[in-house]
Give the backbone structure.
Amino acid sequence: MTLIAIFWDTLLDILPIAAIIFGFQYIVIRKRIKHLSQVLIGFFMVWVGLSFFLVGLEQALFPMGELMATQLTDTTFLPELAAGAERHWSDYYWVYLFAFTIGASTTIAEPSLIAVSLKAGEISGGTINPLMLRISVALGMAFGITLGTWRIVMGWPLQWFVLVAYILVIIQTFRSPRSIIPLAFDSGGVTTSTITVPIIAALGLGLATAIPGRSPIMDGFGMIALACLFPIITVMGYAQVAEWLERSRPSSDITHTHSDHTT
Amino acid sequence: MDFLISLSRQLKDSLRDLAPVVLVIGFFQLVVIRQPLPDSLALIDLALGLVFVVVGLTLFIKGLELGLFPIGENLARAFVQKGSVTWLLLFAFALGLGSTVAEPALIAVAARASEVVSEGGLIASSESAQQSFAFILRMVVAISVGTAVVVGVLRILKGWPLHLMIIGGYVVVLLLTLIAPSEIIGIAYDSGGVTTSTITVPLVTALGVGLATAIKGRNPMLDGFGLIAFASVMPIIFVLLFGIFGLNLIAGST
C-alpha cells in the first residue's frame, strides 16, 4: 500500500475517538479545552505516528516473525528424518526455545509492567517484591507463548488449552489474597504490547503455514490468548507463595509493618 | 526544549521496547540459523522498517500524552462529578469504542485475520471482501470493548464482585465455543488480548480509577482495575457471536 493510502486510512481510524472526545467536551460538558493548540498537535502526532508505525509493521515486524517461523521449521534446519518416519514434536525444540526467549525478554523490560509492579510492591507493604512480580509475569507470558507454539505443532484445538487455563485461573482466584486479583487480571493485558502482538501473530501464522498438516486459519491464532492467560496464573501463584513465606517467617516486626500499610 | 527532551525520553522507551525483539532474533539468526536472508527480504529494508516502527511509536505515544490522555482524563472526571449515570455510561461506551478503533495492534491483526480467513474460504478472496471483514471485525471488537467498559463502570457503581463476573464471562465463552464455527475460535480468543494495549488501557484505567476514587467506600486499587479484565473477555464473546450469527452478512461469504 502506498504511503498516502496508509495516511488516509489511519486518519479514518483516529477520527472516531477525536469526534467522541471533542463532541463530549463541547456538546455535553460545554467547557473550553485548555491548551487547545497542544492538544491539536498531539492528535497530529498520533496520526503521523500511527501511519509510520503501520508502514514499519508491514515492512519489518511481520516479515521478521514470519521469517523466523519459516527458517526454524525448514526441513534442512530440523534434525534429519528417518525414511517414512513421522516427525516427533520434540524436533521443533528451537521453535519452543525461540518462543520462550521472545516472550520472557519482551515482557521483563516492558516499561508499563515495571511501573505497575513498583506500585503493587508499595501497596502491599513489602509482601510483594516488584522484581519477583515482574519475573512471574515474564515467566507466565513466556510459558503461554511456548505452549502456543507446541499447540500449533501438535495441531490440538485451542479451546482445550483455554479451558484448562480458565480452570486454573478460577481455582487460583479463590485461593489468592483478595488484593492481588485485579492486579493479576491486569497483568495479562500488560504483557501484550504494540510491538510484541504483531511479532507473535506473525510467528503463529508462519508456523501454521510451514508445519505440514496445519492450516493458518485453524491453528495459526491463539498464541496471544495464551500469552494473556498464563501471567494471571503465575502472578496469583507468586502472591500465594509470598503470603505463605510471610506467614512462616517467625519475626514479629514484619507482620507489624504489614498491618501498618493495610489501613 | 522540554518537549524535545520528553520526546527523546519516549524514543528511548520505544527503543527499549524493540531492543529485546531485535536482540533475540539477531541472536537466533547469527548463532542458530546461520543462513543468508531470502532474496525477498533485504537487510536494509528491514532496518528501515524498524526505524519507521520506532519513530512511529514514539510520535504516537507522545501525541497521546499531549492530546488524548489529558482531555480523556478530564472528561472522565467531569462525567463522574456530573452525577448523571446515563451520561456516564454513554461516555464510557463511547470511550471504549473510539479508543479500540484506533488501536494499532488491532488494525494489524484484523488485516492479517482477513487474509487468512479469505484463504481459508470462509469469505470471498476479493480485496473488498477482505477489507469489509477486517472492518467489521474491528467494529465488533470496538463495540464489545464499549460494552465491557459500561459493564465495568456499572460494577464499580454497584460494587459487584469482579471475580464472579469474570468467571461468568469465561463460562459464556466456553459455551459459545461449543457452537461457534471452528474457523473463528482462534481469532476470537486472540482478539481479547489485542484490544488491551496502547490507547485503551490508559484511558479506561483513568475512568475506572477516577470513578473508584470519587465513590465512597471504593478502593481505587481494588475497584479501579477491573475494567481491563472485562475489556479482554468481552471481545471473545462478541467475536464468537459474530462468527455464529454474523459471518453470512459479509458480501461474498459462502
Summary: Chain B has a mean pLDDT of 86.
